[in-house]
């Protein structure tokens, strides 16, 4: 495309999105014509609320849609349950702290930071106990990573189930963590030569614990106490959680109380009865830690319908546990034709990237899909390709390509294409 074509497109785009001119009829979504140009709006005629009226700021009261949601029939109790990130209502790559999905097996532990301790023992020269202040005095790092629950999209194995990116893909968030590299703590304790695995255990009522290979612990794991600058939220493991970049959310132990070093895995409940992948032949895959490349169009999507014909922007998220996202493709016809989306914003290792594809909607029905590729060369598979290998008994690790059917009304629906 030449420059002039580009600017012509851009001019066309602006003409397409600019609202009604002064004096025109009340636009469909306007509540009160008196607030519209050329009138002086209500909010200009009076002083606003004073500075300091909210010691901790909240979103505008008009943004009520951007909240975590649950699916009540999914779990028996709220203590062992999940809430979903409102992906359809967000942009960029960072998830606001109050909107990060939560997954707990025994409710949210309330830990007094003064009574908090982290124990490090097992196959080490010197067992250690750290207070929160001890951890905060050690050299720290800042890293942006996605966290995806292995069960994200788990309800979709046997066909399209839930209507909304929040529900099909909302068990993912991406924030900046601040904390101490686990390697540093292990070095302080002195790991014995026979050591091969570490066990991380939570201090919540579930006492959730997972075995992690020592090599990963020494590579990029972080004992984190901050997210997006502020202290971890109680829901996310206050005051300390383990960050295990690119690996399934279950191993990111929250309310971290203990790390034990051993020479073999512990075969805990969460790595035997749960978080294993039951295959077609009845055997189960174990320790499938890495989250493969995945993407989803967050807007338009069932909770974010198209409001107008003409120029519109497709927007979505992509991530990979194997490294950086290299490319994202978008299809409007259910995967027959693809074009490369524009990635905008930072592209970090094992973090979400934001992609966009501008398009002109003439009101026709479309099948919207996105497909992620990572730097290892891995390409996000179709759901059918995944089922050929995995069968349909699985719950976890469903990274198949999502399809949204766009209808003439602008509404969208979760569907599958053959
Ligand atoms: N850690 C403890 N101690 N208890 C838990 O129930 N849930 C795990 C993991 N760590 C859990 C835990 C699961 S399954 C996931 S997906 C992530 O935490 C969710 O992290 P989040 O609540 O910050 O989104
Ligand atoms: Co999980």
Name its key features.
single chain; 418 residues; alpha+beta; Sulfite Oxidase, Chain A, domain 2; Immunoglobulin-like; 2 domains; 5-stranded mixed beta sheet; 5-stranded antiparallel beta sheet; 6 helices; 11% helix; 29% strand; globular; disordered N terminus; binds ligand MTE; binds cobalt (II) ion
Write up this protein.
This protein is α+β, with helices and mostly antiparallel strands. It folds into two domains: 104-280, Oxidoreductase, molybdopterin-binding domain (Sulfite Oxidase, Chain A, domain 2, Alpha-Beta Complex), CATH 3.90.420.10; 294-415, Immunoglobulin-like. It contains six helices and 23 strands. The protein has a five-stranded mixed beta sheet. Strands 5, 6, 9, 10 and 11 form a five-stranded antiparallel beta sheet that branches. The radius of gyration is 24 Å and the shape is globular.
Summarize the structure.
By secondary structure, the protein is α+β, with helices and mostly antiparallel strands. The protein is built from six helices and 23 strands. The strands form six sheets. The chain has a five-stranded mixed beta sheet with strand order 4-3-12-7-8. Strands 5, 6, 9, 10 and 11 form a five-stranded antiparallel beta sheet that branches.
